[in-house]
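Folds abound. Consider this:
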Amino acid sequence: MTAALAILAAGSSTRLGQDKVLADLGGQPVVAWSLAAAAASGAFHETIVVAPQAAVDRVADAIRRAGSHVRVIAGGPSRTASSWAALDALAGCEVIAIHDAARPFVPPALFLRAVEAARRDGAVAAGLPLAETVRRADEVGVSLEEVQRDGLWAAQTPQAFRREVLVRAREAAGSRSYTDDAAAVTAMGEKVVMIPGDRRNLKITTQEDLAYARELAEKGLAAIAAGISR
């Protein structure tokens, strides 16, 4: 089965206050790290980047300057719409993996593992079983109860699917949007198998996240994970 990767970079970055996929990270734009990891994995016949309509040219130029030559397409007004745009753009591929550009330190091996699992199981999502105690609190932060963490996972990307699974999920979703693609597949009654993610596979959401990622890149602690030489 041929496999392709869509890196979603069409978010608004409102909490970061700048375009996080083009922010500098170790001398490269954030999105370039995922592209390098994808290339190092050898798992994909094609990789595309999904960018905001107004930023397609800017993202494409940044990617070229970083040394990658992949298609950049326009996404939609929501994460789900951007995933459906990727589904259309990768029409010839039998397995499609979807990854958030805001997770630059994804290990190449995780891409490969996701694709192999999707070929076998149809729909998979990377994640980590929760290890910390989880508490529910009210609107002012007062602890109400401890939540049983057995069976709870913190979801990551990549998530990978056989093409026909995503096609059915889009048909079932209609105009609805979901937090990720696994949620869209689950909503139509299809099972999604969780596979072990990686603790290095952090998500950049805030300025503090970006500062921490830059510290890891500066110290060379993320270079092997991302496939970028330092």
Summary: The first strand starts at residue 3 and ends at 8. The mean pLDDT is 92.
